[in-house]
Amino acid sequence: MPTLSPLKVLRSLQVEGWVGCCSMVGDDRNTRVMKVFSTIASPVFAEFVVVITGGYCCWLPQDVSLFQTLRRMNEAIFKLVFLLEDSDPLPSGVRQKLAKALEIATADGLLDFLDSPPIARVVRSRYCDWDKFSV
After folding, report:
1. 59 partner at 20 to 30 Å CA-CA among 20, 37, 52, 135?
2. What's this model's pTM, rounded to 2 decimal places?
3. CA distances in angstroms from 84 to 27, 58, 89, 97, 113, listed in the order given
4. What's the whole-number mean pLDDT along residues 100-121?
């Protein structure tokens, strides 16, 4: 298991495959994230980013174990960010899907441990063919 403790200026940790991914399932996925997170010793750490791809943001409010793990991690001070990577060229529709998922999670009390609302960001998936006409 990798450790992050040698990184003394880590400002942000980005976790992919935590939401809706078949390869990291249930408690094993949460245990792995907690092990890595617990090694952070950087005094400037400020942002924990959960990367969500495509349509998985709809599953977000149903993933109670993810929010339970985030609640345990919240003893450290960090800003929670949900970053949705999507291939949709119209970010407004994708942004609305993520906002709705976070609204449901908030209404269900899954984010009540936070001092401030999470940040929601949407980016075009890096797996898209960005410039298929370039030579």
Report:
1. 37
2. 0.72
3. 23, 11, 13, 10, 22
4. 90
